[in-house]
Amino acid sequence: MNLPNKLTLLRVLMIPVFCVFLHFSPDSTLWRWLSLCVFALACLTDWLDGQIARRRNLVTNFGKFMDPIADKILVMSAFVMLAAQNRMEAWAVVVILAREFIVSGFRLVAAEGGVVIAASTIAKYKTASQMFAVLLTIVLVPGPYEIIARIMLYISVFLTALSGADYIWKNRKFLRG
């Protein structure tokens, strides 16, 4: 297993740690900062594995398949927990989750046909915006500057819907069976 794939797996292993820290974060500044640090480190592994894979020509089908799944698990865990803590709007989380499940369904159908659908450019911006929305929410909500986190959440919802429509359009042949 190459280094980018190991970083992807490391990101998956960081998710339960992040979730435990985030669970206790509303009641403690320490837990809030610990959850922020673990989430930021997980986001860094996402960026790093992509950079290494492309620069060293270490792109694999495993990486193309698992990297977006690791991102989804990380971000969806954060969104669900933040919504449960009333720190993020539930409707936005539902829109984001729906897109992720729909696109994951497309990926599975394509994979059954031997096709690996790599993340599009807009999907990469979507993931970055979601990660940034989570980071801002952890730091700013609740608080006097939470509007900044809300605006970032709305931007990520827009990019999420846009990238979902893009995936459906570009891969509509899989709808025909």
Write the layout of secondary structure elements.
Layout: H1 3-24, H2 29-55, H3 61-84, H4 90-112, H5 121-140, H6 146-170
* Model regions low in confidence, pLDDT < 50 over at least 5 residues: none
The rounded distance between the terminal residues' Cα atoms is: 33 Å
The helix tally amounts to 6
Strand proportion: under 5%
CATH topology type: Four Helix Bundle (Hemerythrin (Met), subunit A)
Q: Please provide the count of β strands.
A: 0
Output the CATH class name: Mainly Alpha
What is the total domain count?
Answer: 1
CATH architecture: Up-down Bundle
Write down the overall geometry.
globular
Strand count, sense and closure of the main sheet? none
Estimated radius of gyration: 16 Å
Element-level helix/strand string: HHHHHH
Mean pLDDT: 93
CATH homologous superfamily title: CDP-alcohol phosphotransferase transmembrane (TM) domain
Helix content: over 70%
Structural class: mainly alpha
Would you mind describing this structure in some detail?
With 177 residues, this protein is mostly helical. It has a single domain (3-175), classed as Four Helix Bundle (Hemerythrin (Met), subunit A) (Up-down Bundle), CATH 1.20.120.1760. Helix content is 80%, strand content 0%. It contains six helices and no strands. It has helices spanning 3-24, 29-55, 61-84, 90-112, 121-140, 146-170. Helix 3 packs antiparallel against helix 4 (90-112) and helix 3 (61-84) packs parallel to helix 5. The model has no long low-confidence stretch (mean pLDDT 93).
